[in-house]
Each structure stands twice: as C-alpha cells, then as structure tokens.
Write a structure and sequence with these properties.
The complex is a heterodimer of chains A (about 280) and B (about 240). Chain A is α+β, with helices and mostly antiparallel strands and about 280 residues long. Chain A is about 30% helix and about 30% strand. Chain B contains 5 helices and 10 strands. In chain B, the strands form 2 sheets. In chain B, strands 1-4-3-5 form a 4-stranded mixed beta sheet. Chain B has a 4-stranded antiparallel beta sheet with strand order 2-6-9-8. In chain B, helix 1 runs parallel beside helix 3. Classes of the chains: A alpha+beta (about 280), B alpha+beta (about 240).
C-alpha cells in the first residue's frame, strides 16, 4: 500500500491515455509551423502581456490540465492526532495529474515554461467524494530561443504573475517549477475531562496546537522536497491554505503549501532602486 | 466632447482622451433566450449541439445589437464591454454593455464595423501605447453532456482513491472545444493573439450533467509592421 510519501510515478494510476483530440488540434494550430507560430491565446492581462514581452518572452498559448478524482474514504480515530494518508495522497495525486497535463500541453507548444498557473479545486453536483482539480496558465517561449527549461528539459511552471515574473528576471533569478506539498490531518477530539477542567479558563490547547503545527510543517516539508528535486535555490511566494473538501468532518483539515522554486541566473542581483509612487487611484 | 454618456471611471475617460479617443455614448444590447430542452443519452459524453448553438446565437444577437447601437452613433469601437446573464427559470437574458468611442481614424474599425473589447480604459491605453489594437471580443462556447457512470463502476470505486477518467475526459474535451472556437473566431478577425482569456462554466437550470463552458477574451493585432512596437519602460515602484 503506497503512503503519502510514495513518489508519484510509482503510484498505480489511471492516466488518461493522451490529451483529448480537441486539445491536440487547438495546440497544433497555435504552434503553427516551425517558421511561424499561429495565433496565441493567453489569460494574461494587458500589463502582464507587455511585461512578458519586455522580459524577452512571447506568449505561446493558454494551457490547462484537469483531473476529476474520486477521493477514497478514511476514518479518523476520535482521540488521535494523525495524518489521513489516504486523503493526502488522493488530493496530491489529483493535482499532480492536472499539472502533468498542463505541462504536456506546454510541451506540445514547444514552450519554455508556463506562468500565472492557477490550481483550483471544484466540486460538481455529481457526488460529494468527486473533486475536480484544474490547472490553467499561459505558456511562453523566449524570443531568441534561449532555453529557460528545467534541468530535465521540460517547460518550467510557476504561479508568478507577469509582473512578478518580470521583476524576478530583472533581479537575476528565474523560476524552475511550481512546487507544492499537502497534508490532510485529523485533529483529535478532546476528552470530556479535559473539557470540564478548562471551562472558563484561559489556557493553550496543546493537542490542537500540536496537531495543526505538525500538519502545516508536513505540507511545507513536502513542498521543500519538491523544490530540492528541481535543484531550486529557494521558493518564493509560498501560500499555505487550509481547506476542507466535500462534507469532511470538521476535525479533518487539508493544509496545502504552494510556491515557485527559483534559481539565480547570475551572481549579481542588483535591484533597480524602486520609485516611490503616490497613486491617485483609490 | 459634448454631452456624452459612459460608464467609464474618471481615470479611464482621461486616459482615452490622452490617446485621442473620444467617448460617444453608453451602448447596450440584449437578447432574451428561451432555454430549450434536449434529451441526452444517459451513458454518453457528448456535446449538445442544439443548446450550444442556441447559447451562441443568443450571445451573438446581443452583441449584434450592441454593435448596431455603436454604429448608429458613428463610433469606431466599443471599450469596456461586459457580458452579463440574468438567469430566470426557463429563460435567460444576455445583456452586453460598453462605451462607444470615436477613434483618431476610421482605420480602427474591423471590416467597417466598430471594434469591440472587454478591456478597461487603463488596459486599452497600455495596449495602444505599446503598438497594438483590439480587434474584437471573441467568444467560444460548448454545452456538454457528461455521461453518468454505471452502478458497477460506482461500486467498484467505493472507498478507493482513483481518477474518474470518463468525467475528466468529458470536461477536458468540452473546455478545449470552447477554447478552440474562441481561437477560430480570433483567426477570422485576423488577430495575432488573444489576451485576458477567461474560461467559465455554468449550468442554466439544466440537468446537473449538462454544463456550458464559455471562453471569452479580446483579440488583438499589431498596429504597425510586425515586430515594430514602442518599447515600454516599466519601473519598480514602492507603494
């Protein structure tokens, strides 16, 4: 039985045989011929579009990946703080599948990477235990063909906005990959005795603190491990979210850490002195 | 500028003026649409072409009316177009609105008709200054029926972690179709790209297995010769 730490390629899974035919068709039209690319699509705002251009990149096309996943059942023991490994694994695997498809789409576009990746979870009315994970972003390529792909020669992914991407490149760094880690944790219920002894008093709840602390640390640790595998120097823009999915017991919580791993492109990180701006906007 | 109406903010109005555009009138188009009923086969994932074309048609006629209004006031384009759906039990009203503008030259029109775009005044300004122009608001839609799963399949999965490949495939396919249609629309408008794409989904009182996917964005083209863009000068700001 694989646990939450099982590498993703060792999981028995039901990969889609390939991307849908319409995806290939759409991407082929944007890829165009070797000499000339077709029309690009992107969810970049105008400012992002212009900044990406200024950084020396061109939009290749909007790419996405999705996976609808049946999340298995696991019961937390009433009085025990513990990770729900089956749930952790399900939610991680589903995200990984969506991301892998997004990367495959970027690969078909011959892109250097994908920026502005958003990873959303959706529920449809077809069942509480079904979750849809969807990743969307804009694939970009370098104007002069300078490769910005990862050390495994795959397109990089990143949740940085066009503005952040521009600033990062300006300061001598580049993104290598969107990294994530998660942990679904069951927080123990407290016994009646503890509850009674605490009535009306100020006191820390050490078991609750410990549980949530532990769960967050596990999620961050996993994210960190992903960044190290990508040979990143560090992770920027990490967000830790607390989530509950589809009718879970209130004592079961998912912690999800996501950020972008970066590497330096030069030893010198001279940052242009920022201008002080007083905006007239509200 | 004399007595015009618009839903532009102060900043937007000033920015438009700065690049030589003049707001003319607030324009609106709408279309009331009866949501028909089509039977889908229980165990098959497929597009519902009748519903797709009804939705497309409703949106297109609202847009047509918007453009007609703009044309009537002699506009060269419409900025800040918003598309809203007011959904009732068996009907839906599609409303599009925006501000019709006069461009510095009639060359801004697309095949003689005013250009359309959902860009804000600020975005429009940045785009024009960088040497691009919007062509048209492009939309692609696909109404899709997602197959139900058999009881056997359902029992099989009870308590297990696994991907629902048929559901994944269905929604994936439907989104790609919507995006592909949007792309084709932009190609017809001889644009070079689309910015600000949003992919939305909605079920308009249909069965929960019938979903509409909608892709929407503004197609753009370079104003001058290809590769000839005004360089932008971004700066870091501390605010």
């Amino acid at each position: 039985m694989p646990d939450a730490n099982t590498p993703i390629d060792q999981l028995a899974d039901s990969h889609l045989a390939e991307l849908p035919a319409h995806a290939r068709e759409r991407l082929a039209r944007m890829r165009g011929t070797q000499a000339k690319r077709g029309l690009f699509t992107s969810d970049l705002s105008v400012n992002e579009f212009l900044l990406v251009k200024d950084a020396g990149f061109e939009a290749a096309g909007l790419v996405m990946g999705s996976s609808i996943y049946h999340v298995g059942y696991q019961r937390g023991r009433w009085t025990k703080n513990e990770e729900m490994t089956k749930l952790t694994q399900a939610l991680y695997h589903a995200r990984e599948l969506a991301m892998a498809r997004l990367e495959e789409e970027a690969q078909l576009l011959g892109a250097d990477g994908v920026i502005g990746v958003r990873l959303d979870v959706k529920r449809h009315a077809w069942g509480d235990d079904l979750l849809e994970f969807m990743a969307v972003g804009t694939a970009i390529y370098h104007k002069d063909g300078v490769s910005h792909r990862t050390h495994e020669d795959k397109p990089f992914t990143s949740d940085l906005s066009g503005q952040d991407f521009w600033t990062l490149l300006r300061s001598g760094y580049r993104p290598v990959g969107l990294v994530m880690g998660n942990c679904v944790y069951h927080v123990a219920h407290q016994g009646l005795g503890t509850w009674v002894s605490q009535i009306g008093k100020n006191c820390e709840m050490p078991n609750f603190t410990q549980a949530l602390y532990d769960a967050r640390e596990l999620a961050m640790e996993r994210m960190q491990a992903e960044a190290m595998a990508l040979k990143g120097e560090g992770v920027v823009g990490t967000v830790i979210e607390e989530k509950t999915h589809g009718g879970w017991d209130s004592h079961i919580i998912e912690f999800f850490a996501i950020g972008t791993a970066v590497v330096p492109t030069s030893a010198d990180h001279r940052i242009v002195t920022p201008q002080l701006v007083l905006t007239v906007n509200e | 500028m004399s007595g015009y109406t618009s839903d532009l903010s102060i900043d937007e109005a000033i920015l438009l003026e700065e690049i030589g555009f003049e707001p003319l009138s607030f324009v609106l188009g709408s279309s009331f649409f009866h949501i028909g009923y089509t039977l889908a086969s229980w165990s098959k994932s497929e597009e519902m072409p009748k519903l797709t074309s009804a939705m497309q048609e409703a949106r297109a006629s609202a847009m047509r009316r918007l453009v007609d209004q703009a044309r009537a006031v002699g506009a060269d384009g419409i900025v800040g177009v918003r598309m809203d759906v007011d959904h009732r039990e068996h009907h839906a009203e599609f409303v599009v609105m925006g501000t019709a503008v006069k461009a510095p030259s009639p060359a801004w029109r697309v095949d003689g008709a005013p250009f359309t775009s959902d860009l804000s005044g600020q975005d429009f300004w940045a785009l024009v200054r960088a040497g691009y122009r919007p062509r048209s608001l492009v939309v692609g839609s696909c109404v899709y029926h997602v197959a139900h799963q058999g009881l056997g399949q359902w029992l099989n999965k009870l308590g297990n972690n696994c991907e629902m490949t048929n559901f994944t495939q269905a929604l994936y396919d439907a989104r790609e179709i919507a995006m592909e249609r949007m792309q084709a629309e932009a190609e017809r408008a001889s644009a070079t790209g689309i910015v600000g794409v949003k992919v939305k989904e909605g079920s308009y009182g249909w069965h929960s297995h019938i979903i509409e996917f909608l892709a929407i964005g503004t197609s753009i083209a370079a104003t001058g010769a290809p590769g000839e863009h005004e360089p932008i000068a971004p700066m870091l700001s501390a605010s």
